[in-house]
Amino acid sequence: MAGTGHPDPTPPPALHRPRPTRSVDLSVGRVASVIAQLLFSGLALGSMYALVALGYNITYATSRTVNFSQGQSVMVGAVVAYELYVGAGWPFVPAVIVSLVALALLGIIVERVAVRPFLASSSIAWLLSTIAIGIIAENVAMVLFGKDARAFPSALAARPWHVLGAGVYPQELLVPVAGIALMALVELAFRRTLAGKALRAVAFDHDAAGLMGINVGRMITAAYALSSVLAGVAGILLAPLLNVSATMGTTIGLKAFAVAIIGGIESARGIVIAGVLYGVFEAVVAGYLGTGVREILGFALVIVVLLLRPWGLFGSPALRRV
C-alpha cells in the first residue's frame, strides 16, 4: 500500500493489459539509440584508422616501403602529450605542438636508421628493422612511462551529450571531424603546395623527379616524418577515449594496416572510405557479438579482400610486362 515503503501488489486496472504499441515504440527507440551509439563510436575509431593508414599510403607511394612502427607513433604522440600536459603542467596547445615535433623527429629517425640503408641496397630488411624500431619504442615507453594505462583529462570526455537518443561524448564527435578535416588538408597540400607536388612527383617516378631537381631522399624522409605526425595526431585525439598506455598503439597500427590493405594501399581516398567503414563494422560487431568476435571477423575480412582483390577494394592491379 502507499506509504508502507513497498509497491502496491494490485496495480490499477488500466495496467493489467499489455500495451503492445507503446512497448514496440520503446523497443524501436532503444534499438535506434544503440545503433546511433555504435555509429558514433565506429566513426571515431574508423576515422583514426584511416588517418594512421594514410601514413602507410604516403610512405608506400614515395618509397615502396611501409613503416611497421606506425602504431608506436600513435602511442608516442599520446604519451608525450600526456607527460607534457599532465605530468609537466604545460598548456595543452604547446604540449601538442612539441609532441608533433617529436613525432616528426621519430619519423626521420625511422627512415634514416631503419629504411634508407636497406632501400639503397634493394633489400627488404626494412620490414624487420621498422618492426624492431616499434618494439624498442614500446619497451622504452614501458620503462619510462610505466605499464599502467592512465586517463587523459579532457573536458570533451567528461559529460556525454544526447544525440539521436544516444549518449555521446563531445570528443567522439570531434575525432571524426578533426580526422577527416586533417586528411582533406593533407590532400589539398599535396595538390596545391610545392612540397606536396614534389612528393607526388617522387611517388610517380624517382628518376624523373630527380631529373627535375627534386631531392628524392629528402622527400622520402619528409614522407616518413608526415606519416609519423599523422599517427601522433590520431594518438592525441584518441587518448581521452582510450586512455594512454605504452601498448595502446600496437593494435591500432595493425588495424590501420588492415584498412590500408582493404582500401588499397595506393588509394588515399579508398583508405579513407575503408577506414570509416571498417570502424563502423567493428563497432557493430562488438556491440552485438562481443569484442572477441570483432577481432575474428575484422581480420577475416582482410583475408577475404586479399583473396578476392589483392590490390584492395579501391586500388588498381599492377601492370606486368610480358
Polypeptide structure, described:
The chain has helices spanning 20-63, 70-87, 92-120, 126-145, 170-192, 194-204, 206-211, 216-242, 248-263, 268-289, 291-308, and strands at 161-163, 166-168. The longest helix has 44 residues, at 20-63. It has a two-stranded antiparallel ribbon with strand order 1-2. The model is unreliable at 1-26 (pLDDT under 50). The protein is globular, with a radius of gyration of 24 Å. It contains eleven helices and two strands, in the order ααααββααααααα.
Strand order within the widest sheet? 1-2
For the residues shown, what is the average pLDDT? 87
Order of helices and strands: HHHHEEHHHHHHH
Percent in helix: over 70%
Low-confidence stretches: 1-26
Compact overview of the structure:
This protein has 322 residues and is mainly α. The protein has helices at 20-63, 70-87, 92-120, 126-145, 170-192, 194-204, 206-211, 216-242, 248-263, 268-289, 291-308, and strands spanning 161-163, 166-168.
Task: Throw out a few tags for this protein.
322 residues; two-stranded antiparallel ribbon; mainly alpha; 11 helices
Give the SSE layout.
Elements: H1 20-63, H2 70-87, H3 92-120, H4 126-145, E1 161-163, E2 166-168, H5 170-192, H6 194-204, H7 206-211, H8 216-242, H9 248-263, H10 268-289, H11 291-308
Antiparallel strand pairs: 1-2
Helix pairs in contact: 1-5, 1-6, 1-8, 1-9, 1-10, 2-3, 2-4, 2-8, 2-9, 3-4, 3-8, 5-6, 5-8, 6-8, 9-10, 9-11, 10-11
